[in-house]
Design a protein that fits this description.
single chain; about 150 residues; mainly beta; lipopolysaccharide transport protein A fold; 9-stranded antiparallel β-sheet; 2 helices
Length: about 150
C-alpha cells in the first residue's frame, strides 16, 4: 500500500460558482485547500469529496485532476468510488474516473470498470471495460411487498 500523504479536497459544483460570479475557480480551490470560509450560499450544490496522493487544478481549462489512490465520496448518492485518477471538468459538468474503477453504493450496488464518465446535470454515467474484458455490475433488486 502506498504510504504517501493523502490530500483532502472537497468541491461543490464550481461551474455554478463561476456562473453566479461568486468567485473564480482558482480562488475557490485556494479557499478550500487553505480552509478559508466561503459564503454559505456557495454550497447549494451536492458536495463531493476527493482524496488522493496528488491534486492539481487548472483555472484556464477548469479541470481538477486527482491522481494516486483516488477515493471519491458522494454522500447524496450514498456512494464511494476508487480509481487511479479522477478528473472533474467544471465547464462541462463531467467527472471522469480512470484506471481500476470501483464504485460501491450503500445497499450493495457495485460497478467495476476501466473508466467511468459521470454527467452531473443529467445524473447518468457511461462505463468502459478494460481491454478484452467486460464492465461488471452488481445490482440489488428491491422486491415490492404485496
Amino acid at each position: 500500500m502506498n504510504m504517501l500523504p493523502t490530500y483532502l479536497f472537497s468541491l461543490s459544483h464550481c461551474s455554478y460558482l463561476k456562473a453566479k460570479n461568486i468567485m473564480n475557480f482558482k480562488s475557490f480551490v485556494f479557499a478550500l485547500v487553505s480552509g478559508v470560509t466561503i459564503a454559505s450560499n456557495a454550497f447549494c450544490s451536492p458536495l463531493i469529496t476527493v482524496e488522493s496522493d496528488l491534486q492539481q487544478a487548472d483555472n484556464t481549462t477548469g479541470v481538477v485532476t486527482a491522481t494516486g489512490n483516488v477515493r471519491v465520496l458522494y454522500p447524496e448518492k450514498k456512494l464511494t468510488a476508487t480509481a487511479n485518477q479522477a478528473q472533474y471538468f467544471t465547464k462541462e459538468g463531467r467527472i471522469v474516473l480512470n484506471g481500476d474503477v470501483d464504485v460501491i453504493q450503500e445497499g450493495g450496488n457495485r460497478l467495476k470498470a476501466q473508466r467511468v464518465i459521470y454527467f452531473v446535470a443529467s445524473d447518468r454515467l457511461i462505463a468502459d471495460p478494460p481491454a478484452g474484458e467486460q464492465v461488471k455490475s452488481w445490482i440489488r433488486i428491491m422486491r415490492q411487498t404485496p
